[in-house]
C-alpha cells in the first residue's frame, strides 16, 4: 500500500511516498530559506506563492524517483493544520485535486500529530504510552501519547515557542535567519555559564512553558552593555541563551515523566535537531534511567514522510476526509490534567 503525502504548513514544500507505513520510497523537501532570509523571517504571502510554484514539479519528481505512476498511489494525505492559512490552502487544494482526479481517499493530518509520529520512521520505536516533547518554531508542548492518533496536551508555551525565541534573539543580535541554527553554531564557541539568564516557569507547577521573559532578559543585557559602551560577547550570550532554553525543556519533560510514571520520552519538532538539546536529554535519560527516542534530524524539521506515517494510520482506521476539507491555523488539543 502506497501513500503520497503533502506538507505545506509553513515555509517548506514537501512530498513523500511511503510504502506499507514504514518504507520511504521518496522524501523530498523544497526549502524557502533563501527566499525569506533577506526579510529576517517568514513572509506568509511569499511562502504561499512559492508553494504554488513548486508543489506540482516536486510531486512529479517524487513519483519519478519512486519509479511510480500516479495510478499506483492508494491514498493521498495532507497537512491541514495548524500552520499558515495561505500555505495550508495550497497543499490541501492540491491534495484534493489528486484525490478527486484519481478517485482515491483523501486523508487530513494534524501537523503536530505527525511530528510526534516521525519517530516511527526509525528502527527503534517507542511503546505506548509515552511522553512527547514537541519543540519547533511555532510550538512548544508536552503530550501524553496513548496511541498513534490519540494524544493529550499536558502543557504548552504561554507565549513564544522555543524556536520562535531563538529566531527573535538572533534577529535582535543581527545574526540573520534562520536564527536557531546560527545561535547553536555560535554557542559552540562560547561559555554558557558566564552570563546569568533566567529559567522561566521552572518555579511554577504544571507543564507550561514561557520564553518571552528569557528573550526580554537578553534584550536588557544587550541594551545595558550598549549604554556602557561595551561590546556584546556574542558567543557567550548565544551559549547562555541556548543552555537556558534547553534546561527549561529538560526540566519540564522530566517533570512530565515523573507525573505520568512513564519511562519513555519522544523528542519531536524542528528544534529536536538541536545538538545541545539532544545531548542534554541523552545525559538525563542515562542519569534517571528512562528511555529516550530521537528521530533523525531529517525527520525533525518539516517533512512529508512524517505526514505519510500519520496518514497511514488514519487509512488503516478508515478516517478519510471529504472534498470540503478545511484548514486551521491553531490547534485545539484535548487537555490531560494531572
Automatic annotation (TrEMBL):
Stated family: Belongs to the KAE1 / TsaD family.
Cofactor binding note of this UniProt entry: Binds 1 Fe(2+) ion per subunit.
Superkingdom of the organism of origin: Bacteria
The reaction(s) this protein catalyses: L-threonylcarbamoyladenylate + adenosine(37) in tRNA = N(6)-L-threonylcarbamoyladenosine(37) in tRNA + AMP + H(+)
Protein name: tRNA N6-adenosine threonylcarbamoyltransferase
Encoding gene, per UniProt annotation: tsaD
UniProt-annotated binding residues for Fe cation: 111, 115, 302
Localization, UniProt: Cytoplasm
Gene Ontology annotations for the cellular component aspect, listed alphabetically: cytoplasm
Amino acid at each position: 500500500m502506497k501513500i503520497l503525502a503533502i506538507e505545506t504548513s509553513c515555509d517548506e514544500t514537501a512530498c513523500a511516498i511511503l510504502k506499507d507505513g514504514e518504507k520511504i520510497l521518496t522524501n523530498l523537501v523544497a526549502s524557502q530559506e533563501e527566499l525569506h532570509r533577506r526579510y529576517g523571517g517568514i513572509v506568509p504571502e511569499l511562502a504561499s506563492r512559492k508553494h504554488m510554484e513548486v508543489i506540482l514539479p516536486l510531486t512529479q519528481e517524487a513519483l519519478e524517483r519512486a519509479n511510480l505512476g500516479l495510478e499506483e498511489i492508494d491514498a493521498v494525505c495532507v497537512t491541514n493544520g495548524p500552520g499558515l492559512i495561505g500555505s495550508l490552502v495550497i497543499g490541501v487544494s492540491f491534495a484534493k485535486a489528486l484525490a478527486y482526479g484519481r478517485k482515491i481517499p483523501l486523508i487530513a493530518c494534524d501537523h503536530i500529530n505527525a511530528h510526534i509520529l516521525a519517530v516511527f520512521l526509525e528502527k527503534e520505536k517507542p511503546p505506548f504510552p509515552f511522553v512527547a516533547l514537541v519543540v519547533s518554531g511555532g510550538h512548544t508542548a508536552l503530550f501524553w501519547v496513548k496511541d498513534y492518533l490519540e494524544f493529550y496536551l499536558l502543557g504548552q508555551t504561554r507565549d513564544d515557542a522555543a524556536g520562535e525565541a531563538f529566531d527573535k534573539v538572533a534577529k535582535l543580535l543581527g545574526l540573520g535567519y534562520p536564527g536557531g541554527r546560527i545561535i547553536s553554531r555560535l554557542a559552540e564557541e562560547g561559555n554558557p555559564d558566564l552570563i546569568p539568564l533566567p529559567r522561566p516557569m521552572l518555579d511554577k507547577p504544571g507543564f507550561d512553558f514561557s520564553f518571552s521573559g528569557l528573550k526580554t532578559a537578553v534584550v536588557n543585557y544587550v541594551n545595558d552593555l550598549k549604554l556602557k559602551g561595551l561590546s556584546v560577547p556574542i558567543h557567550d550570550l548565544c551559549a547562555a541563551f541556548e543552555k537556558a532554553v534547553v534546561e527549561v525543556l529538560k526540566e519540564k519533560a522530566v517533570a512530565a515523566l515523573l507525573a505520568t510514571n512513564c519511562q519513555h520520552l519522544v523528542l519531536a519538532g524542528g528544534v529536536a535537531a538541536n545538538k545541545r538539546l539532544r545531548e542534554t536529554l541523552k545525559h538525563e535519560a542515562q542519569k534517571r534511567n528512562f528511555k529516550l527516542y530521537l528521530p533523525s534530524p531529517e525527520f525533525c524539521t518539516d517533512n512529508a514522510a512524517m505526514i505519510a506515517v500519520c496518514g497511514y494510520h488514519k487509512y488503516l482506521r478508515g478516517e478519510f476526509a471529504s472534498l470540503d476539507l478545511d484548514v486551521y491555523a491553531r490547534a485545539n488539543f484535548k487537555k490531560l490534567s494531572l
